[in-house]
């Protein structure tokens, strides 16, 4: 084993918080005790705060604060962690307190060069997101912990279709953050099938003590997207939507999560999409509203009529607000 490997191994053993003699370190790593002494000397020379206690109960140990120090992050890794924490906190990450403690450690144990680098980059990146609901932090934590440990939860859920909340038992397989909201995906014992649940509609949650096995290869992300998008663009039941307009506008439209996944043809001045009728008459008209007169719906006519209905209702609403 190379000397650098020996030094790193000794450091990891000491970072566990244990006090170990040179003989114990040598036996653990299967190296000569003289090699341990040389590695300890090199670590001390490089600035690692190793304390040597003499006597019958003596040995080597790390200075207490150094046990918790993130010693192995370079400048780019530290910057990446800071930026990732900004995204996570803005998204309502359920373990924000632990995340902040980790970032505080980075700053606390950084040298002057590292600290200056961290501070310069920390305030150069911002995220525009709706403010996270602090009341849902406990629910998110419980969902993530239950998903990790395989424990069913009893929840009180307010669905979009029912005016009164329902008691349900679910097996949470994972949580997903998507378009400003958190979702839990898993098995619903009430519906006897896989379902997704908006976390902001979970009024309360409590553990049941009942264990479950998550299906192998299950992906909460793929399940959620599979519910929102057609299973196959070759499905003959899907409607064809033809939208015309300037290429720049159509390019922007194609970046939308729904249109980007359902586009089947793109040519100059025209884009063709496939969608089920339910989506076409519920979500899609509102997704198209911001584009106003910059686009033209060539087909189907039923979507044109739905757009006319939606815009007429909105026009009447705002006309009623005029004094």
From TrEMBL:
Alphabetized Pfam families for the sequence: HTH_11, WYL
Name of the protein in its database record: Helix-turn-helix transcriptional regulator
Domain Helix-turn-helix type intervals: 8-61
Lineage, uppermost ranks: Bacteria, Bacillati, Bacillota, Bacilli, Bacillales
InterPro entries on file: CBASS_pafABC_assoc_protein (IPR051534), HTH_11 (IPR013196), WH-like_DNA-bd_sf (IPR036388), WH_DNA-bd_sf (IPR036390), WYL_dom (IPR026881)
Limits of the WYL domain: 139-206
